[in-house]
Design a protein that fits this description.
Oligomer: single chain
Number of domains: 2
CATH class of the largest domain: Alpha Beta
Radius of gyration: 22 Å
Number of helices: 15
CATH topology of the largest domain: Aspartate Aminotransferase, domain 2
Strand content: 15-25%
CATH superfamily of the largest domain: Type I PLP-dependent aspartate aminotransferase-like (Major domain)
Shape: globular
Strand order of the largest sheet: 4-12-11-10-7-5-6
Helix content: 25-40%
Largest sheet: 7 strands, mixed
Length: about 450
């Protein structure tokens, strides 16, 4: 690509580029950080300043930027073919990647349907669940049960099963009806002193009451990411699986954020030995290199779509770049790195070191709650710690903190006033120390400002 000076790029950015999840009026008044390259866990701007990638380029990067093995896999595939459709055809990279994913997945997930990103993986799961019951002649089973504060993507089906009012409420007239159960949020739960998992009880009651019309429950296993990194109590996921199985309801596990080592296991479902009927993957599937998603399904579900051509039981859904060979080849190389570098085995020391730093941060007067699952962290900032009182929205404290972090050399991302840490799995202990030092100092500066 031709090189342009910073002044031109900034002007064109303000004139033409519409950034996601961004209030552009405020953004246009700030000096944008324009990333020019990456190396390992660092990103570099146009002036050569480097920043720790504290959110793994939106939770996607696993092995670092410009990882040699991934670069080589991409180049090698380019020498074969850049793209070929999976509609009635196949290619080696998609076939082998599908096989590898079923070997890694929780038991029973034997079929893989590729798509483009997390939202489309969820759309596939929703449509598969709906049509599964139609193909079996149970047309009344058409509803989905979601959790409050859920986030499953931004396409309309994914938004329908989302539960974050700020993101989703405006689109309500466009969405299909769903059932909703209260999600665990222990820090702000009125039952936190006498918890008997009342939130779970409500879900179990809804599944039982609506089993004749309920197609599936959809859940982010163990940790609700976009809600603010909110963990579920131990045993919650397993009990949800038990309830769905007992009442003949499918379970969809959205592992877009939690998959591929983020929680310390390859998939979050493994922590509680849960095998869902459908599992959605994206983000880390290609190590953060290229868009690729996968929806894994059980053989029982797959069998319901088989039949004579004239029965029209086929799954009429697809994407132009479904199973793109370049992305699939990089995905395979990423899985090879997991094996060769013993990535999962090396996470325990990093998780422990991170926990030590977080314990120190928990003492800050404006850090209300520290939430960690593996290398997934949410630091909820509050104005009054004793009363758990949030900061006024207009102060934009979370945004202030991430701007301070940039000055100190790290890229973070806030969810409101919750600061998220989710570094690449390849981060070293020394780099993790530096990221936490910067985060703590940024919180100190950001909460003291204005």
């Amino acid at each position: 690509m031709a090189r342009y000076d910073r002044e031109t790029l900034v002007r064109w950015d303000r004139d033409h580029l519409w950034h996601p999840f961004t209030q552009m009026q405020a953004f246009r008044e700030e000096e944008p950080l324009i990333v020019s390259r990456g190396e390992g866990v660092y990103l570099y701007d146009l002036e050569g300043r480097r920043y720790l990638d504290g959110v793994a380029s939106l939770w996607a990067n696993l092995h670092g930027h410009r990882r040699r093995e991934l670069d080589e896999a991409l180049r090698a595939q380019l020498e074969q073919v850049a793209h070929s459709t999976l509609l009635g055809l196949a290619h080696p990279a998609a076939i082998v990647l599908a096989r590898r994913l079923t070997e890694l997945a929780p038991p029973g997930l034997t079929k893989v349907f590729f798509s483009d990103d997390g939202s489309t993986a969820v759309e596939v799961a929703l449509k598969l669940a709906f049509q599964y019951w139609r193909n079996r002649g149970q047309n009344d089973k058409r509803l989905f049960l979601k959790l409050s504060n859920a986030y499953h993507g931004d396409t309309l089906g994914a938004v329908s099963v989302g539960g974050i009012p700020l993101f989703h409420e405006i689109y309500r007239p466009l969405l299909f009806d769903t059932l909703e159960a209260p999600a665990p949020y222990c820090y702000r739960c009125r039952h936190r002193e006498d918890c008997d998992l009342q939130c779970l009880t409500v879900l179990e009651e809804q599944v039982a009451a609506h089993q004749q019309e309920l197609a599936a429950v959809i859940i982010e296993p163990l940790m609700q990411g976009a809600a603010g990194m909110i963990p579920q109590p131990p045993g919650y996921l397993a009990k949800v699986r038990e309830a769905t199985r007992r009442h003949g309801v499918l379970l969809i596990a959205d592992e877009v954020a939690t998959g591929f080592g983020r929680t310390g296991r390859m998939f979050a479902c493994e922590h509680e030995n849960v095998s869902p009927d459908l599992m959605c993957l994206a983000k880390g599937l290609t190590g953060g290199y290229l868009p690729l998603a996968a929806t894994l399904a059980s053989d029982d579900l797959y069998q319901a779509f088989l039949g004579d051509y004239t029965e029209f039981k086929a799954f009429f859904h697809g994407h132009t770049y479904t199973g793109n060979p370049l992305a699939a080849a990089v995905g395979l190389a990423s899985l090879d790195i997991f094996v060769r570098d013993r990535v999962l085995e090396g996470l325990a020391a990093k998780i422990e070191r991170l926990s030590t730093h977080l314990a120190e941060m928990a003492g800050h007067p404006h850090v209300g709650d520290v939430r960690q699952l593996g290398l997934m962290v949410g630091l909820e900032l509050v104005q009054d710690k004793a009363g758990r009182e949030p900061f006024p929205v207009a102060r934009r404290v979370g945004h202030r903190v991430i701007l301070e972090a940039r000055q100190l050399g790290a890229i973070l991302r806030p969810l409101g006033d919750t600061i998220v840490l989710m570094p690449p799995l390849s981060i070293t202990l020394a780099e993790l120390d530096e990221l936490c030092r910067i985060t703590f100092e940024a919180i100190r500066r950001g909460t003291a400002a204005g």
